[in-house]
Amino acid sequence: MFSNPLKSFTHITDRILHLLSSCTYPTHIHQIHAQLIVQNLHSNTTIAHHFITASQSLGLLDSALTLFTQLSRPHVFICNTLIRAFSHSHVPHTPLSIYSHMHRNSTLPNNYTFPFLLKSLSDFRELKLGECIHTPIIKLGHVNDIYVENALLDLYASCGRLGLCQRVFDEMPQRDVVSWTVLITGYKNAGMYDDALIAFEEMQYAGVVPNQVTMVNALAACSNFGALEMGVWIHDFIKKRAWELDVILGTALIDMYGKCGRIEESLGVFRSMKEKNVLTWNALIKGLALAKSGEEAIWWFNRMEQEGFKADEVTLVGVLCACSHSGFVDTGQRIFSSLLDGRFGFLPSIKHYACIIDLYARAGRLEDAFNFIKVMPFKPTKAMWGSLLAGSRAQGNLEFGEFAAWKLLQLEPDNSGFYVVLSNLYAEMGRWSDVEKVRIMMKDRGLKKDLACSSVGTEPLEDVFEFFAQ
């Protein structure tokens, strides 16, 4: 009596699928790998999918890659599953090598191939390779697939090519909330906040309802552009939709209100949030620092520690800046000393030193600021010399101001604003021959006086927080 080969095949397949679903050790994967080759089952798409998933969960994707790239003509489903798995593992170039393997073996990609392939290129900012992939997308007729197009948008936005991103967006036959969000986020990340907000308004006119990711990025654009009215509109939208203020959305609102000088609204959002993290506290303290509400900033800093939240580098920058803006020299010194002693689990960075120098300079303690610059373990930055210059001018100490201005010129010899400041200092000192020398230096360098830049901006807070991008 002959056995049924189909029944036998089904039994083996079911057995392997069961083993893959219960696979918990790397040795199991290697044993199943061997059985797939012996039984010639690695071309089976169902088994391939489960094997890749099991390998991924155990961190053994390379085993899956080795197995399935041996196929002379792998099924597109297997290749897509591999590309998707590797796009989540953040291994550079592997998804592209799988795509190249498909091409060499005449496996035609489909619309499911490209989104995750483009995602991997986007993650590593591979613009040139992405542009090469764009060509077959057009040739194969996938330009009308919204998922492929959204992945292309993300690639160009991530690489900072907003012109290409906008062109792809404009040519899309249909756009969803993801399309608009990618465009808005791209403009926001590129610092083109006005364009981000224009895109956000156009999204409303198009009748596309934003999601929470859209709102977080639109709020960030409002924060940096000072678009309070738009920020309030977004907050009202959130209230009308009865969205829960989770950590990300709530923190974005606090940051927006804080940067726009609406501290009461910022505190209101903070108090209404059920869950907070260190970023939430940082946004609040930063807003208070910007509003020069030093006493409140210190109070909330102490409250943060009382509630069991561990301050990070950004927190300390915020509270030190608050001390600087409010003239709390003793408190600032005490907090900085705690930093030096390792109380917070890390040593002060160059930005914390910049805050202390600014603290001394604003308080008129120019000698202390200058001595701090001399002994600190970092090279002085533009913000530091700018703080000393501003403090010197405020105190009428023109000699210190001259020294700081020359240091700024050494850092940025082509910045016409610094020459103007130095020239003005010499004019205040009655040193007219030096005024003429500075003008000759500007002429020799081909620089022209910018009428809108007759002084040096020395506000270090935004530079400080920019350094610790959240």
TrEMBL record:
GO molecular function: RNA binding
Superkingdom as given in the UniProt entry: Eukaryota
Protein name as catalogued: Pentatricopeptide repeat-containing protein
PPR repeat intervals: 176-210, 246-276, 277-311
Entries under Pfam families matching the protein: E_motif, PPR, PPR_2
Entry keyword annotation includes Plastid: no
Presence of keyword Repeat: yes
Keywords, in A-Z order: Repeat
GO aspect biological process, one term: RNA modification
Lineage summary: Eukaryota, Viridiplantae, Streptophyta, Embryophyta, Tracheophyta
Organism: Carya illinoinensis
